[in-house]
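In the design runs reported in the main text, the only information available to the sequence generator was the tokenized backbone. The following block is the verbatim input for one such run; it is reproduced so that readers can re-run the procedure and compare outputs position by position.
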């Protein structure tokens, strides 16, 4: 038996390394995102900045010391450090977001299509949670204080808001996606063109006038 194991072990090892037991990203080279084709090269088949032209600023972003603008109907503001701000994130599958909350401010109901989040409360008191899929629709949540960390697994609707009446709150969220694609309540009430009212009315079991009022508010926010 042990000879058999000795014989098969290298084979099993080889198979597991080929078929993805290794969870590190496959990306092994620098691929700083670039818009100007003139200085671009292909790395792993992707268009990247010529590595000889890469500079320190391709990996740098400043501004997380500044609060985001919470003067909106939600009372929250996000500061992004994704591939749009840091081209060096290309191919790395990570990004960072700062979220500021006014008293009772909410992050509109949203979920990331791809990317789990790990949230750190820098200041204030936040209610943080997510809802699992049908049919259980289990709400998994917690009230967090300064220094608390919470994980939001990818693909579930997030519920994040400041429960305090008087104090602001700040959170830093790390995401395993370099350009997280967000779907929020705007996708429902602020779509372009609008989703038919009769569909929304039945889907949400609301009176038509309630849906109409909501749609009007979303339109006003945009103008
Ligand atoms: C914050 O956003 C509001 C609404 O868009 C705007 O009127 C205001 O000038 C912004 N404040 C700052 C400091 O950027």
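Verbatim output:
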């Amino acid at each position: 038996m042990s000879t058999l194991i000795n014989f098969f072990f290298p084979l099993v090892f080889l198979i597991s390394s080929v078929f993805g037991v290794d969870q590190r990203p496959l990306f092994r080279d620098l691929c700083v995102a670039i818009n100007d084709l003139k200085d671009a090269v292909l790395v792993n088949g992707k268009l990247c900045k010529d590595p000889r032209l890469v500079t320190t600023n391709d990996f740098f972003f400043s501004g997380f010391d500044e609060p985001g603008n919470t003067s909106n109907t939600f009372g929250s503001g996000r500061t992004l450090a994704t591939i749009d701000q840091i081209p060096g994130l290309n191919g790395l599958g990570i990004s960072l977001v700062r979220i500021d909350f006014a008293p009772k401010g909410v992050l509109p109901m949203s979920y990331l299509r791809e990317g789990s989040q790990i949230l750190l409360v820098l200041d204030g008191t936040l209610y943080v949670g997510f809802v699992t899929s049908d049919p259980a629709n289990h709400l998994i949540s917690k009230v967090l204080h300064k220094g608390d960390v919470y994980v939001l697994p990818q693909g579930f609707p997030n519920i994040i808001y400041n429960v305090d009446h008087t104090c602001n709150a700040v959170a830093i969220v790390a995401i395993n996606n370099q350009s997280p694609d967000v779907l929020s309540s705007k996708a429902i009430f602020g779509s372009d063109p609008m989703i038919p009212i009769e569909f929304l009315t039945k889907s949400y079991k609301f009176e038509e006038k309630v849906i109409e009022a909501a749609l009007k508010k979303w339109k006003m926010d945009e103008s």
